[in-house]
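chain and backbone:
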Amino acid sequence: MRVTGRGRTIGRMGMLLAWLLLLPVLACAKGQATTVLVLGDSLSAAHNIPAGSGWVDLLGKRLSTRSGSPAQVVNASMSGETTAGAATRLPGLLAREKPGVVVIALGGNDALRGLTPAQIRANLEKMIVASQQGGAKVLMLGIDVPPNYGPAYRQRLAAVYRALADQYKVPLLPFLLEGVALQPGMMQSDGLHPTAGAQPKVLSNVWPLLQPLL
């Protein structure tokens, strides 16, 4: 079958039209940003430090200037938040934000209120399962409590995070404030919350585990 000059022109125009129609789809796919949802307590909510200086804010700034796959941060952390409260809020957050990564940084307030490790585990597990079923990768940031809680309680609490990380194949940072909590000048006067100057160190603890998930 012989293709005339007019036929070739029409064919080219058809291919060009198809390409133009496809461009917005390709652009959308390329520019779609991964959302990182951070679900934490006052340690992640920049408690008593200048706005924009918390480790989650610093993470957002780092990702905004990062080359390659774009990512954005939604900080759903609240001072005083517990695992039970966060587990209740999470389904709505997953539906609205559709995160690709969920960072769970909770458990400290539960421990301070005397919840058992089993109760904390149940709530954390609920959040991990909901996040994974929603298609998100999960990163857990562990906590510690003051020595006066006793070694047995601290060991059982740490074991909760390790067991969940193993069961659900989730990366775990054993202690969010590693290299911060006992360092002079890096904690606020309450002894519980890091200073603004310590926030880059907190982010440096989180980043090596978070980066591969993006």
In short: Residues 5-31 form the longest helix (27 residues). The first strand starts at residue 34 and ends at 40. DSSP finds seven helices and five strands in the chain. The two ends are 52 Å apart (CA to CA).
